[in-house]
Specification:
Elements: H1 14-29, E1 40-45, H2 51-62, E2 66-70, H3 84-92, E3 97-102, H4 107-114, E4 119-124, H5 130-144, E5 151-155, H6 162-170, E6 177-181, H7 190-199, E7 203-206, H8 211-215, E8 219-222, H9 233-239, E9 258-260, H10 281-299, H11 304-314
Parallel strand pairs: 1-2, 1-3, 3-4, 5-6, 5-8, 6-7, 8-9
Helix pairs in contact: 1-5, 1-10, 2-10, 3-4, 5-6, 5-10
The structure holds phosphoric acid mono(formamide)ester.
């Protein structure tokens, strides 16, 4: 296993997280470098993606590397029965870094066990999405000026939403207060509730997204109900429209409140929120490029501090 892999947000300590956020800030100011000259990166997406794949591929391009990969596994030999193990071993023969999304929880961890090529988990089932968490943290830091002592309200599909699972774990370093707003069917899984208890993180569980909850939040993190994870589509139909955030619901919210969403959205944020200055989800997705440039450099052992000094010396 390559120790530069990023499989779970739990792989990162507080110092590493803060260092990556500093790197993301640098890449936002200076996105184009040639540090990946001669390097090839694979993006293996066994599940659909818009933002994660395209921002990773843009990041590689902006860093001067090249990308191979697929966005539709049905066009690959996995459709002929090739195992994940064989696919990873084969692709490792060609590239310096593998970025992968897979529908099975634990797939990225498994990949690290069959290759020495670093693996970045771009989402594994309902489990983890650590690179989304890094851009979420960067977005929170940019909009709040701090990661410490914030009240964060997570809304929607807390059962299957891997982004909220990763975010919750990363926030343990920053003294958050959480509100979990979900219907009975999509409550935060017990393991994450237990995690909060063990870490001493205060949390409340709510079924309604009330004015009181909204007005005492610094961040509201909306999520899509993950249709693709439901075994019973009738159940999905019952719960899919449980929460819709509308602009009128934000009228008495805190000035610093920002609305985040990992996207894609379906019905959970009404389009009338888009023009509200508290809507931040499109900027959040843009931040993904800078966070992912930082993550790629980290996985490939590129010294961003040195790069910063060189860049500033040339300025
Ligand atoms: N947030 C996110 O993972 O989006 P995509 O599914 O479009 O990559």
């Amino acid at each position: 296993m390559n120790t530069n892999s990023l499989v779970s947000i739990a792989d990162l300590g507080k110092e590493q997280i803060l260092r990556l956020l500093e790197s993301a800030r640098f890449f936002e100011e200076h996105p184009n470098h040639k540090v990946l000259d001669g390097k090839v990166v694979a993006t293996l997406f066994f599940e659909p993606s818009t933002r994660t794949r395209l921002s990773f591929e843009t990041a590689v391009n902006r860093l001067g590397g090249r990308v191979i990969g697929f966005s539709d596994a049905s066009t690959t030999s996995s459709s002929k029965g090739e195992t994940l193990k064989d696919t990873i071993i084969m692709v490792s023969n060609y590239v310096d870094l593998i970025i992968m999304r897979h529908y099975l929880e634990g797939a990225a961890r498994y990949a690290t066990e069959v290759t020495d090529t670093p693996i970045i988990n771009a989402g594994d089932g309902a489990n983890q999405h650590p690179t989304q968490t890094m851009l979420d943290l960067y977005s929170i830091l940019k909009t709040q000026g701090t990661l410490e002592n914030l009240t964060i309200t997570l809304v929607g599909d807390l059962k299957y939403g891997r982004t909220v699972h990763s975010l919750l774990m990363a926030m343990k370093y920053f003294k958050p207060r959480f509100r979990f707003v979900a219907c009975d069917e999509l409550r935060m899984p017990r393991e994450y509730v237990e995690f909060c208890r063990e870490q001493g993180i205060p949390f409340e569980e709510h079924k309604e997204l009330t004015r009181e909850v909204i007005d005492s939040s610094d961040i509201i993190y909306m999520t899509r109900v993950q249709r693709e994870r439901f075994a019973d589509l009738d159940e999905y139909e019952r719960v899919k429209d449980f929460y819709t955030l509308r602009a009128s619901m934000l009228e008495t919210s805190r000035p610093n409140l920002r609305i985040l969403h990992p996207l894609p959205r379906v019905n959970e944020i009404n389009q009338d929120v888009d023009d509200n200055p508290k809507a931040y989800y499109f900027d959040q997705a843009r931040n993904g490029l800078f966070a992912r440039e930082a993550i790629i450099c980290d996985a490939l052992g590129i010294d961003v501090e040195k790069l910063k000094k060189e860049t500033l010396a040339q300025a």
